[in-house]
Amino acid sequence: MTSKKYSISAVIPAYNEEQSIREAVLRTLNTFQVLGLDFEIIIINDGSRDQTREIVLALVNDYSNIQVLHHEKNQGSGAAFETGIAHATKDYVVFVPVDNPLDIEDMRTYLPRMDVCDIVVGSRMERVGYGRLARFASFTYNRILIPLLFNIGLEDVNWISIYRRNLFVDDVITFNSRSLFWLVEILIRAKKKQLIIAEVPARMKKRLYGRPTCTRPTIVFQTFVEMIKFFLALRRDKKSR
Q: Are 56 and 32 in contact (CB under 8 A)?
């Protein structure tokens, strides 16, 4: 049990996740219950074409603190998070990937920093379940391109983070990216606003079923494209001042 009752909304995107979604949701739900948190879980069915819709609707029927929202077409993780934020009601919001549900020890790492920080960023100790190409892309993105182009000063910019919800409700931070670059875009904008950001060590788990979304070539390409577009937009803004 925690000494304080934190209030948190978990946004879980699901795109063709019929094998994984039930377990991911229930593991996260169990973690929040054991830690005594005030919580809600918001599942975003992001245009799934398999049995994901039916599975999550069954979860909603069984648990009062789970809700599901549907995108008729797949829009990407950035859009899923945006939809989740629009319907969240708790003080904090966290984006939870299906392949890495929050276990008790994972969440305990974040909790001590939440009172004093605007954003708590998970920094993975190792990459698990990545092939050679995915490892190369991740290293190039996290360790070379993001520091070189944006100088955020964080070890890992692409993992589970917890945000104060009012940052988005009050338009302190806005983001436009739909690929995985939205995670970085938020951090860049937060740095510019001089918000308080802390990093905590985080575990990455091997996906039990299917292939991690972030390793798909189309997602990797889209993320790199959005990164370059955002960098160029920042440069144009600087020149126009």
A: no
Q: Is 28:13 a contact under the CB 8 Å cutoff?
A: no
What is the SS3 string spanning 80-117?
Answer: HHHHHHHHCCCCEEEECCCCCCCCHHHHHHHHHHHCCC
The predicted pLDDT at position 216 comes to: 67
Domain ranges of the chain: 7-240
For tokens 């944006």, the residue is 150
Rounded to whole angstroms, how far apart are CA atoms 129 and 215? Answer: 10
Q: Which parts of the chain have pLDDT scores under 70?
A: 1-4, 129-130, 207-217, 241
CATH code at 7-240 = 3.90.550.10
pTM: 0.90
* Three-class secondary structure of residue 34 per DSSP: helix
